Amino acid sequence: MSLFFRCFLGAELLKSNNEGNESLLKSLWHHSDAILCCTLKATPVFTFANQAGLDMLETTLVALQDIALEKIFDDHGRKILCSEFPQIIQQGFACLQSGLCLSSMGRPISYERVVAWKVLNEEENAHCISFMFVNWSFV
Length: 139
Description:
Domain MEKHLA: 5-138
Protein name: Homeobox-leucine zipper protein ATHB-15-like
Keywords: DNA-binding, Homeobox, Nucleus
Order of helices and strands: HHEEHHHHEEEE
GO molecular function, one term: DNA binding
Pfam families: MEKHLA
Number of strands: 6
Oligomer: single chain
């Protein structure tokens, strides 16, 4: 995930250090922005979230897979995501401007922007889409 963020966006997702994969996982887990991954199915569902992502969605890792991507965005957010989705698939990333979304409990959440990027598998096929909700907060 971090590799493709760097590849498509030209920036580092996580602070680099020489402590290995375990340290990278801890950095991802404790990242202050909500980072979420979802499937590329007809109805995308979440498969991973860091601690900030779980807090934002007010859910657990176990319940995360029951949340569809389209359910957290309002109508405006869904329209923007649908219009940007081809760019994410073709160019590998997109940035969505500030907006609102909803937690799994229906609480409104504001965010400064969402950075979305494609994550590839070993065969370089699209595996999932990752989203980073920057500077999110409950409204």
